[in-house]
Design a protein that fits this description.
5 strands; 118 residues; HIT family, subunit A; 21% strand; five-stranded antiparallel β-sheet
Length: 118
């Protein structure tokens, strides 16, 4: 498993050093509201272990991305958006808009989401 990064924003949230509005969790993940929401429901689901990208997490820990998707489904149900639909997005790298180098899934819903997204 990858170590926690001392200067990582999400590692600070996971460690409890930085406050967050936590809405769900599992043994491997933590889910909290995005501070700059792009939809009425915008929750980030992050692994407790530090991996910079989804590709790194998938290569290092089989099943971790599945766990993020499972927790996203639970949060979507709790938020009342599971039946109407939601989007789960992983931005990987700066060209895709990843600004925090700790893999995280964006759970977005509560309004119509256009396609293509970008």
């Amino acid at each position: 498993m990858a170590p926690t990064e001392s200067d990582c924003l999400f590692c600070g949230i996971i460690a409890g050093r930085i406050p967050a509005d936590v809405v769900g969790e599992s043994e491997q993940t933590l889910a909290f509201r995005d501070l700059n929401p792009q939809a009425p429901t915008h929750v980030l689901i992050v692994p407790r272990q530090h991996y910079a990208t989804a590709a790194q997490a998938g290569a290092a820990d089989a099943g971790l991305l599945d766990e993020i998707a499972r927790v996203a489904g639970e949060v979507a149900t709790a938020e009342g958006i599971a039946d109407t639909g939601y989007r789960l997005v992983f931005n990987t790298g700066p060209a895709a808009g990843q600004t925090v180098l700790h893999v995280h899934g964006h759970l977005l819903g509560g309004r119509g989401l256009e396609w293509p997204p970008g």
